[in-house]
Structures are given as C-alpha cells and as structure tokens.
Amino acid sequence: MPDTVYSFCRDEDGAITIDWVVLTAALLGVTYLASSLIGTGTMSLRDEISIAIDNHTVGGNF
User: Fold this and answer.
1) Which of 7, 25, 44, 61 is the most exposed place for a label (fewest CB within 10 A)?
2) What is the pLDDT of residues 3-20, one digit of tens each?
3) CA-CA distances (angstroms) from residue 39 to 31, 32, 43, 53?
4) Where are the domains of the chain?
5) pTM of the prediction?
6) How far apart are CA 43 and CA 49, in angstroms?
7) CA-to-CA dists, residue 40 to 49, 54, 58, angstroms
C-alpha cells in the first residue's frame, strides 16, 4: 500500500493538464479585463462624440 501511494505522488502524467487549465484560465481572465476596460473607454468616447454632434449646427447655405 505505501508503494502505491508513493508512486501516485511521484506520477506526473496529469501535471501538464493542470498547467494548461491554469494558463487558459489566466488568459481568459486577462482577456475579460482588457475587453471591459476597452468597452468602458469606447462608451465614454461615444458619449463625447454624440454630445459634439448634437451641439453642432449645420448652415442652410452649402
């Protein structure tokens, strides 16, 4: 029985799977953070452009 537990603890077959799961989760977290920051900045810029267009008057003489 102790030999089985020792060999199980020394086995590294599934270690690469855990590495990929952690790396993928980190990549998804960074992607979500970046997209939320870009989305917030884009909405702010959209609001500023909308206000500028609303305040602009177009003359009747072309």
Assistant:
1) 61
2) 887 787 777 677 788 889
3) 12, 10, 6, 21
4) 14-54
5) 0.52
6) 10
7) 14, 21, 30
